[in-house]
């Protein structure tokens, strides 16, 4: 395994696309409410890297459940083949922005995924 070439970042999908976003990857299982596909500016919608429907519903964006959510989501990521897709993409692209729809900019699946990916070497 090589070094991670791509630099990962996170951003709300409702924020306008920027030149330095690089490859924009939506990491939510559901399409963001009120976001027309033509305005999203995504390069890839990687639904399969999102938390399971069960875990997403249990978390329900409640900050007091974030620690448990993070731990359980990391366990899901350990056996999720979509993680390899992101790592391969990072090996080929200088910048990858993980897009999410949650209102909370700190307690969301994209932040957990970002921390998880930064701890892994490229595929």
Task: Describe the structure in your own words.
With 123 residues, this protein is α/β, with parallel strands linked by helices. It has one domain (7-118). Helices cover 37% and strands 15% of the residues. It has five helices and four strands. It has a four-stranded parallel β-sheet with strand order 1-4-2-3, with helices on one face. Helix 2 packs antiparallel against helix 3 and helix 3 (66-78) crosses helix 5. The longest helix has 13 residues, at 66-78. The mean pLDDT is 91. This is DUF488 family protein.
Summarize the SSE layout with pairings.
Layout: E1 7-12, E2 23-26, H1 37-40, E3 44-45, H2 53-59, H3 66-78, H4 82-92, E4 95-100, H5 109-118
Parallel strand pairs: 1-4, 2-3, 2-4
Helix pairs in contact: 2-3, 3-5
């Amino acid at each position: 395994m090589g070094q991670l070439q791509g630099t990962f970042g996170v951003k709300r999908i409702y924020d306008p696309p920027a030149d330095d976003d690089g490859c924009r990857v939506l990491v939510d299982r559901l399409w963001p409410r009120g976001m027309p596909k033509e305005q999203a500016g995504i390069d890839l919608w990687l639904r399969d890297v999102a938390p399971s429907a069960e875990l997403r519903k249990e978390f329900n964006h409640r900050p007091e459940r974030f620690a448990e959510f993070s731990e359980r989501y990391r366990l899901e990521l350990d056996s999720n083949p979509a993680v390899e897709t992101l790592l391969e993409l990072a090996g080929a692209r200088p910048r990858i922005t993980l897009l999410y729809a949650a209102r909370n900019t700190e307690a969301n699946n994209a932040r957990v995924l970002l921390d998880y990916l930064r701890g892994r070497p490229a595929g």
